[in-house]
Specification:
The protein is of the alpha+beta class. Helices cover 42% and strands 22% of the residues. The chain is elongated, with a radius of gyration of 35 Å.
Length: 321
């Protein structure tokens, strides 16, 4: 009876241990397979990114600057999602620390890709991504990308013999190899990606509105102050510093020469209106108003300077009805 009781206890204990072990294996299998699904989805994204970046490095020289900039910016915006996905892969803890490994490698690869994209943008003087994007301290981002890719391709078999027997995809290295070999030489040699600067004065406004007069003459009513507004345009796909100088030089009257200088940085292909600036005048004054912008050469069909003769009506003069 005692032997029978002991045997029953051992059998029950063994059954519970077996059930517990089976439950643990089932749970581990589920965790491994869930991890593999998320990890492979991330790797697919990275490999698609690799293909697109390699294509941009090879054939981007045929694109215009706006199109190239848009595609480079699209690639850059993908990188932030990788880090978020990689952080989600850290839990639960898996065998061989494979989940921490892919998360750490992904963070490193994000920094490397950001450094490459930033170098491309700076070499072509592109406005996007921001010049602050990317680690300036990374001496060899392409070499780092190849090293992390080879590390993962060697360690991706870590879960092959664990519960679930999952297969993890390998990382491709085409853009890293291409950048390591030729950098941005193909892009900087392209005429379609070269910086072409151009600025011009698009419009001038005067308050109060000038009276009818011959071309180049601003005939104004007898006021003591006028306001000048100047609209300038950047015709190049590149950020452009522009300086506007407004000079009012009287030839008669009590007022001295007046000079105003203004600065602005124009975004690519954008215009900017300098708000109306106040200039003191007196009735019957005669003067020359010079408007000049500097920072780049004049673009086609636009000029960097305009000059007007300013004539103010005498006191008490009324505008024509």
């Amino acid at each position: 009876m005692i032997a029978l009781a002991v045997t029953l206890v051992i059998l029950v204990f063994a059954r519970d241990v077996a059930r517990s072990a089976h439950g643990a294996i089932t749970s581990q299998r589920s965790e491994n397979r869930s991890f593999a699904g998320l990890a492979n989805a991330l790797i697919v994204q990275e490999n698609n990114f690799d293909v697109r970046l390699a294509r941009l490095l090879r054939s981007g020289s045929t694109l215009t600057r706006p199109v190239f900039d848009a595609r480079l910016n699209q690639l850059d915006q993908q990188l932030t999602y990788w880090s978020t996905t990689a952080d989600l892969l850290r839990r639960p803890k898996l065998a061989h620390d494979v989940n921490d490994e892919i998360a750490d490698l992904t963070d490193t690869r994000v920094d490397d890709y950001e450094a490459i994209i930033a170098r491309i943008a700076r070499s072509l003087a592109l406005p996007a991504p921001s010049p602050s994007v990317g680690n300036e301290t990374l001496a060899g981002p392409a070499q780092s990308l190849m090293a992390t890719g080879l590390t993962w391709n060697k360690d991706r078999f870590a879960l092959r013999h664990e519960p679930g027997q999952v297969r993890l995809d390998e990382l491709t290295l085409s853009s890293a190899k291409l950048f390591a070999e030729s950098g941005v030489a193909n892009l900087t040699a392209s005429s379609s990606l070269a910086v072409v600067r151009g600025i011009g004065i698009a419009a001038v406004s005067v308050v109060p509105a000038p009276l009818p007069a011959r071309k180049g003459v601003l005939l104004l009513p007898p006021v003591t102050q006028i306001k000048i507004g100047v609209s300038v345009v950047n015709t190049g796909f590149v950020e452009q510093e522009v300086t506007l100088q407004v000079t009012m030089k009287p030839s008669n009257g009590p007022l001295p020469e007046q000079r105003r200088t203004y600065h602005v940085v124009l975004a690519p292909l954008q215009s900017y209106a300098f708000v109306h600036q106040e200039i003191d005048v007196v009735p019957s004054e005669r003067a020359v108003l010079d408007l000049r912008i500097s920072g780049a050469s004049a673009s086609a069909n636009l000029t960097r300077s305009k000059s007007y003769r300013v004539e103010l009506s005498p006191p008490g003069a009324l505008p024509p009805s």
